[in-house]
Specification:
- The protein is about 25% helix and about 15% strand.
- It has a two-stranded antiparallel ribbon. Strands 3-4 form a two-stranded antiparallel ribbon. A two-stranded antiparallel ribbon has the order 5-6.
- About 15% of the residues are buried.
Length: about 180
């Protein structure tokens, strides 16, 4: 409930104002905009936030800035060290690419940026290009497209099936 009068609208989450919170700091922290914040909280006085006041924070996809476009979804058991090893990069580079990431509190499903360049993919005749989506595995892709993991590995020798990146392109045989 916001100010005890209503529940937060869909696609928002409740937040309690703490000492030192400002509207500018909240829009930065929650990666939102002033109009979106005010729209989710009709009647709020942005110049007079009160400690203990309950407001609704608009939710949106929170993808970090990632010039290379290599996004990875945190999996159960992941640590920054394991992720860095999987992608053959340093933990420092991973931290630098994800400044808002709390290394001690990785959340399964959280999207992070992997700072490595993706080579362009040219698929041979008889195949088509597919872009990896969140949650994809070679097993799921093989099942969905009626092929085998071995065939996917053969067609994509430079792709680590244990380190798929969201948006990464792979070649899939046409059926």
């Amino acid at each position: 409930m916001v100010d005890g009068s209503r529940e937060c609208p869909p696609n928002t989450e409740e937040y309690v104002i703490k000492a030192g919170d400002t509207l500018y700091e909240l829009i930065q922290r929650f990666e939102t905009t002033i109009p979106a914040l005010i729209g989710a909280n009709p009647g709020i006085d942005p110049e007079n936030l009160q400690v203990g006041q309950e407001i609704c924070i608009p939710l949106q996809e929170r993808f970090p800035s990632c010039p290379e476009g290599n996004f990875y979804s945190i999996q159960p058991g992941d640590t920054l060290y394991k992720i860095a090893q999987r992608f053959n990069i340093s933990v420092d580079n991973l931290n630098e690419a994800n400044p808002r990431l709390d290394p001690q509190n990785l959340n399964v499903g959280e999207i992070i940026c992997i700072p490595v360049a993706k080579p362009p993919v040219e698929c041979p005749e008889g195949t088509f290009k597919y872009q990896i989506q969140a949650g994809d595995t070679f097993y799921e892709i093989a099942r969905r497209f009626g092929t085998t993991i071995e065939e996917l590995k053969r067609l994509n020798p430079d792709v680590n099936p244990d380190a798929l990146l969201i948006g990464q392109s792979i070649c899939i045989p046409e059926t």
